[in-house]
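ARCHIVE CARD
Drawer: 12
Card no.: 0347
Subject: one protein chain, sequence and derived structure
Cross-reference: see card 0346
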Amino acid sequence: MDIFRLIQDIKTHLKLSFDEVDKWFGKDKTILNYQPSNGGWTVQQILEHIYLTNFYLLILIEKGSKKAMRNYLDLDLNLEIKNYSFNQEKFEKIGEYGAFQWMRPEHMEPKGELNLTEIRSLVSQQYHQCLHYLDLMKNGEGLLCKTTMTVNELGKINVYEYIYFLSLHAQRHVTQMKNNELEIYNNP
């Protein structure tokens, strides 16, 4: 496994996902506040949900990165890299809106307590946090800690995969926001 290629691919995915999310903050109020016919969230609520989910995932990513760096002292990183293979297929469904059912925890549901400017700033900070962890674990150390991910039965995933999950989650909701916007234009 080329761990440096994996890290670079995750950085590229993060950039694309966060750039896509950022575009939605500039949409007009009609799009931001449109309540879809299926009773789902507005774009503004989706943006808040992305922030909240990132917030909680980054807690796990931070703990995982610290543990991975500690494990570096006791585990054979070269052996871990040699034996690692990234199963991208098992992650792809995470990025597809509606691909599976999952009830998110209540603390990840938007409550309307932050304005759009605050959310945008926080999401931008979260992007930079992800890059920081990837830079911190630039030699493959992120493989040295695994944590269980219950969403779509992913099981034990390493810190890099958690960051990739975070990026895919944002991608999933970009599709949801596009669906909201399309509904506005198709049902004037």
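Annotation on reverse: The domain at 3-186 is CATH 1.20.120 (Four Helix Bundle (Hemerythrin (Met), subunit A)). The two ends are 51 Å apart (CA to CA).
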